[in-house]
Design brief:
about 325 residues, alpha/beta, Peroxisomal Thiolase, Chain A, domain 1, four-stranded mixed beta sheet, globular
């Protein structure tokens, strides 16, 4: 028995923040941002629009497309590093919003790897018999942890949400293999230092801007390329797939140069690699979830196509997954 994604959904906020808008906010240029990242614009949520609101919209679309009654859902797993609150979990808020009254709910915190981690956990739950209809959501309001005066990070991030519904199947398609890994030794290279139990919120922590993302971009870049290639190869080997068998690699959408380096080293053709960061920026955990739902909607992926998901993020965390669509 396998588990299979039977439907997907996504949500992007209306408001578009362009590179020219950013030129008015920090010392940067449209040209630099496009050349160094591949990003043209990103979406920004409204002030009263929290991560659970965006996650609910994405999950609602996936439920509708899968023709699933909310009562049939056994579990909600939400990947996010920008939860509405410490608790209740964002998953519990989505469970309430959508009336998923027979479901348990929990959040997964694995930064940009969150969606692939959550899918792998849902796959294990289904295979072990712990649940049979699972809503996996990834939602991020990165704009709330972005320092809008720091040009090295504020140009990168955007808001949005994606979702997938998993169910068991006896067909020979679905999730073929997955791989999750972490290295906490490099945690300080990509971190929001304050707001938790280590540095609780205080006037001082706000003054020092310690509630915003601090990132050593260069270091993250190098490890991200290495680890996304490594995890792709691990899941491809386990699933018995060669490069020529891959219809689409969906890598974490952080930087076009990272994606190009991965594609080149994996010898993938341009049409085998999905890119949407030009329109969304880096939406952390939501990035692969939005991409998958978009590729599904546009019919870029069809029944029985082999797909590889590859993620990398804060922690450090990384993960890969091979699926037959
Ligand atoms: N506009 C203009 N100049 C800039 C900007 C900007 N927005 N940002 C930095 N610069 C300058 C720097 O100050 C530096 O100037 P200097 O040479 O005078 O010192 C120069 O540009 C080069 O800076 P670098 O940091 O070396 O630029 P780089 O090419 O590495 O690009 C970037 C930076 C885009 C952040 C890149 O390193 C990157 O994408 N890193 C990976 C991020 C990532 O993958 N994150 C994934 C996980 S995210 C998560 O988990 C939440």
């Amino acid at each position: 028995m396998k588990s299979r994604i039977i439907s997907t959904g996504y949500y992007l906020p209306q408001k578009v923040l362009t590179n020219s808008d950013l030129e008015q906010m920090v010392d940067t240029t449209d040209k630099w941002i496009k050349q160094r990242t591949g990003i043209y614009e990103r979406r920004i949520a409204e002030q009263d629009e929290a991560s659970s609101d965006m996650g609910s919209r994405a999950a609602e679309m996936a439920l509708k497309r899968g023709n699933i009654d909310p009562k049939e859902v056994d579990a909600v797993i939400c990947a996010t590093i920008t939860p509405d609150h410490f608790f209740p979990s964002t998953a519990a808020l989505i469970q309430k919003d959508l009336g998923l009254s027979n479901a348990f709910a929990l959040d997964v915190s694995a930064a940009c790897s969150g969606f692939v981690y959550a899918l792998a956990l849902a796959d294990s739950l289904i295979k072990s018999g712990g649940a049979s209809t699972i809503v996996v959501v990834a939602t991020e309001k990165m704009s709330t942890i972005t320092d809008w005066t720091d040009r090295s990070t504020c140009i990168l991030f955007g808001d949005g949400a994606g979702a997938a519904i998993l169910r068991p199947t006896d067909e020979n398609r679905g999730i073929l293999s997955s791989h999750m890994m972490a290295d906490g030794n490099m945690g300080d290279l990509l971190i929001v230092p304050a707001g938790g139990s280590r540095i609780p919120a205080s006037t001082e922590s706000v003054k020092q801007k310690s509630h915003f993302i601090k990132m050593s971009g260069n270091e993250v870049f190098k490890v991200a390329v290495r680890k996304m290639i490594e995890s792709s190869h691990i899941v491809m080997k386990e699933a018995g797939l060669a490069t020529s068998d891959i219809r689409l690699l969906i890598p974490h959408q952080a930087n076009l140069r990272i994606i190009d380096a991965i594609s080149k080293r994996m010898r993938l053709e341009k049409d085998q690699v999905y890119v949407n960061l030009d329109r969304t920026g880096n939406t952390s955990a939501a990035s692969i979830a939005i991409s998958l739902a978009d590729a599904d909607e546009k019919k870029i992926i069809q029944k029985n196509d082999n797909i590889i998901l590859a993620s990398f993020g804060g922690g450090f965390t990384w993960a890969g997954m091979a699926l037959k669509w």
